[in-house]
């Protein structure tokens, strides 16, 4: 059964991947709002439940403009490499609740840095019709390709190159702190991804503010919901 599901998922990913563009579809001077997206899961009455949180941040002031969340049952099983099919329905529905319209969306997960170049950030771009960025806390190894650790200084990076193409970048956002793994989602280039990510780093975390805030909110909401259910 799983093979049949993944065959269908493979076809969808392949078809969408033909339309990925690793170039900017916008002017960096016009960026005002950037959203961060994350999900948290738990089990409830033998069902998998998740809460999606989206935080919209002012790119210039770094202020949090809006935070929205939505809870729902997750019906697609976890299959490595196909996370987007599991998470996208809830993400899309949560986006519908936003009052503000961000120009760019950051995801706690990968984008082009994926075996089929279709991580959650890339896949979501086609449904949200927005440039997207993948921000991962750990490296999802692709084939036999390892990453090279960047030097220990803020802003240092090394590229993850597979078959002659830059899939992603290992970026050090703070000295003496573990790097993060960034990648284009869609309609953006890797240098702009790097610039935007670094511009949204503060002293509180190695993660950019929108993703960090979304991560904190999902943990807070999961704790609230699980406590309430008990």
From TrEMBL:
Primary role: DNA repair enzyme involved in the repair of deaminated bases. Selectively cleaves double-stranded DNA at the second phosphodiester bond 3' to a deoxyinosine leaving behind the intact lesion on the nicked DNA.
Gene: nfi
List of residues binding Mg(2+): 38, 108
Family to which this protein belongs: Belongs to the endonuclease V family.
Record-marked site positions (Interaction with target DNA): 78
Pfam families linked: Endonuclease_5
Species classification: Bacteria, Bacillati, Bacillota, Bacilli, Bacillales
Cofactors demanded by this protein: Mg(2+)
A GO molecular-function annotation: deoxyribonuclease V activity
The organism of origin for this protein: Paenibacillus brasilensis
Name of this chain's protein: Endonuclease V
